[in-house]
Amino acid sequence: MIIRLIIMLSLFVLLNFYVGWHGELALEHAGADVPPVLYWVLYAVVALGYLWGRLAKALGAIGRLWKVVGAVYLAIFEFTVLLLPFADLAGWIMVKSGMSRDNAIQVLSIIVAGILLILMLRGSYNAWSPVVRAHQLSVDKQAPSRNKNALRVAAASDLHLGNTVGNRHLRKLVKRMNAMNPDVILLAGDVLDDVIEPFLRNQMADTLKQLKAKHGIYAVLGNHEYYGGHIEQYVQVMQGIGIQVLRDETVTVDGLFHVVGRKDKTAEAREGRLSMKELVSQLDPSLPVLAMDHQPYGFAQAAEAGVDLLVCGHTHRGQMFPNHFITRRLFELDWGYMRKGLMHVIVSSGFGTWGPPIRLASRSELIDIKLQFKS
After folding, report:
1. Strand partners, 365
2. Which residues pair with 150 in a beta bridge?
3. Residue closest to 182 by CA, chosen among 146, 158, 218, 206
């Protein structure tokens, strides 16, 4: 694990040097007279901003701003790493074709900067403009009551509420979800980005408590709640606003359906967690079983346990191109819908963002599910 970490950090440093060198070259040929030492110090401050901003809690607002700037840089860094090899090849061809090196650098710098601007603007729009994905699904069970032959489920995952995603974005979730007039709301983990401090400081609980559902609001833990380390406080705050956080727990709601919430997979290396089979075993199988498991694993086991609807998140669908090609290979389903036996599975790309507030090849989304039962 240590060797892997050293390799990753070394690669990150080398790629940052590659990007930084091109930036210095672009500034030089644009006529900006920036001393190299100053340039590289400023570059390191920005490039490592997300890491140091997380650690520099004593700096208060400055540290939080540093973290946000560093997060935005991560998106710029990834896109630039993808663009620069093509720019280098184009520059070599241009020089070989007779263009001066200075002109080639100036032209390509403008082109790369223009493409970066377009990607960042589009990525920002995708991150801050949520869409609602609607699913109409049939469950092979009798309607739980004479007056209830369908169930409206509003779901979201990966809100990542913190220094980047705050009340402004959260209010969009509240407005859109309440407009669905749901029977039940499911929040499938990573409601917090990590530490609980910005959630409390910005009174996001006051916004979140405006959510309304006929039969209640339920949440599960994600890996980021574990990373933040304030689980007990978080669960208490959520309980205070009427949202029950299920930690390997089940609830039978008004005799109509069951809600099952697993601890995040992170718990397996800590206090442990129950299997889906253990959680479901004592439930009345004639009632619909709605389950949440933050990370999309164990679909077959959940289907065998008798779950009717499984809602997951975690993947963000890679969040930024081309990461979705990686998540597609890592998970049986990294985004969207699939049928596993008699069970419906929905994996959300999430409502918030981790790190940079940028999405490409993914969108901020909410899930609107209508479960239809036999009449």
Report:
1. 131
2. 372
3. 218
Strand order from edge to edge, sheet including 131-142 = 131-142, 365-374, 150-156, 184-187, 217-219, 243-245
- Find tokens 């390509």 and name the residue: 108
126: exposed, middle or buried (C-beta count within 10 Å: 0-12, 13-18, 19+)? buried
Q: What is the CA radius of gyration of the chain?
A: 24
**Tens digit of pLDDT at every position of the chain (375 positions):** 789 889 988 999 999 999 999 999 999 988 888 999 999 999 999 998 888 877 766 678 888 888 899 999 999 999 999 999 999 999 999 999 999 999 999 999 999 999 999 999 999 999 999 999 999 999 999 888 777 889 999 999 999 999 999 999 999 999 999 999 999 999 999 999 999 999 999 999 999 999 999 999 999 999 999 999 999 999 999 999 999 999 999 999 999 999 999 999 999 999 999 999 999 999 999 999 999 999 999 999 999 999 999 999 999 999 999 999 999 999 999 999 999 999 999 999 999 999 999 999 999 999 999 999 987
Cβ burial, residue 12 (10 Å; 0-12/13-18/19+): middle
Residue 328 one-letter amino acid: R
User: Is the CA virtual torsion 266, 272, 277, 281 positive or negative?
Assistant: negative
